[in-house]
Amino acid sequence: MGERTFVNGYAKRSAGKKGKLVRLPFDVPLLLIVAILLVFGLLMVYSASWDASLLIGQPPTYIFGRQVLWAMLGIGVAGVLSFIDYHFYERYLVYMMAVVVILLVAVLAVNDVRFNSSRSLLSGSVQPAEISKLAIIIYLSFWLYKRRENLANVSIGLAPLSIILGFIGGLIFIQPDISAAATIVILGVMLFFLAGGDWKQIILVTVIGLIMGSIVVAATTTGKVRLEQYLSGLQNPVMGSYHIRRTFEAIIKGGFFGVGIGQADTKFTGLPLPHTDSIFAVIAEETGLLGSSLLVILFGLLMWRGLVIAKRAPDQLGSLLAFGLVGWIVIEALMNIAVIVGLFPFTGNALPFMSAGGSSLLSTMAAIGIVMNVARSSVKKEVSERSQPGAVVDLRGRNGRRGIPSDDRYGSA
How are beta strands 117-118 and 22-24 bridged, if at all? Predict the structure, then answer.
């Protein structure tokens, strides 16, 4: 008999050696998906950012070089966080949210206006709204987990949750960054549902959110203009906004197989923000429908892996963190892609792993590191349970998770 080797829950026999248990502290499928997304993202930033670098008076590879540095820093952060027990963050939750609030207030105080909004610090290098999305998921995961038995009580669950989301979302909204504020609210409702929130309360919050969102859009110039352009574009694509018309042009030029990496021309002839918000249009032009579809599939696989890790998490806190963080990344991706293909009003969301920007990439990689730790913790617990002599296993799955986990099940995951 050989040695049992565990690779994040994948149990296999190793031939020729005995008596030693070997485990890799990573979820291999998640690691591979993220690696492909990260490498492809760097390639597309390299292709899409030459003109943008020259326009700010820098060498053609300036933005790409900065993105590589952010990617290396992000990999380091993800690696460190993957080894930190996710329960550890509880003692720093208040300080974390205090820092987020200070940063969001600082954005308003500095008022560095770029593209008709004030969203950044340090000459555009830091966007606190991106950091706040990560922070609010972590904070609400702990907050909801501690109140999981009393979420049906409006005064304990829904009311304070609404105040938290309203305060953070409000600070982001007045930048103005409507899409980021909406994302914060969506994430909060999603986590409330996952934590066991009452259906009636969830429906009530959704209805109120839709009503308030409609009022906000109608009352703000930015929201009203974007909605009008979106509706015009739906009726007739030629009547859509200039931004959307150029993204359509890029997509049409790409066809099925694309014009080739680096060969797109819309990024040089007026496509707005080709290396950030509109990078999916460059991807569509250079890799075609084939490459664009593969990218969407990769984000789908990322969501699948997040669901698997959330299901296997040692506790509900781990499930909330895993699903919330991966769900956030995928929601951001789908919103960006939907905007570029004209299915959603323009939002200004970055495309995770693809868009150039340090705050977005670093926050995304930090989220991946935390999810990796949830996966690692679940494997440790399962290995510990398997190794306990005389352990009693619930064959009927009464613990609410599953029955005996078999080697075949792990191998096919």
Answer: unpaired
Please tell me the distance from the alpha carbon of residue 355 to that of residue 67, in angstroms, as a whole number: 9
Q: Residue 321 corresponds to which amino acid?
A: L
pLDDT in tens, 273-328: 899 989 999 999 999 999 999 999 999 999 999 999 999 999 999 999 999 999 99
Polymer length in residues for the chain: 413
> Which of 85, 72, 3, 8 shows the shortest CA–CA distance to 38?
72
Is the Cβ–Cβ distance between 176 and 347 less than 8 Å? no
Residue 256's φ and ψ, nearest 5 degrees, are -85, -45
Reported pTM:
0.83
Q: One-letter amino acid identity for 282? A: V
- HSE toward the beta carbon, residue 150, CA cutoff 13 A: 11
Confirm whether 392 is domain-assigned.
Answer: no
In the block, tokens 């005996």 appear at 404
Total domains, the chain: 1
* 143 within domain boundaries: yes
Residue 19 belongs to domain spanning: 3-383+401-411
- 268 in any annotated domain: yes
Calpha distance 345→156 (Å, rounded): 35
**Each residue of 197-233: pLDDT tens digit?**
878 888 877 777 777 767 766 666 666 666 776 677 6
300, 305, 311, 317 alpha-carbon torsion, rounded to 10°: -100
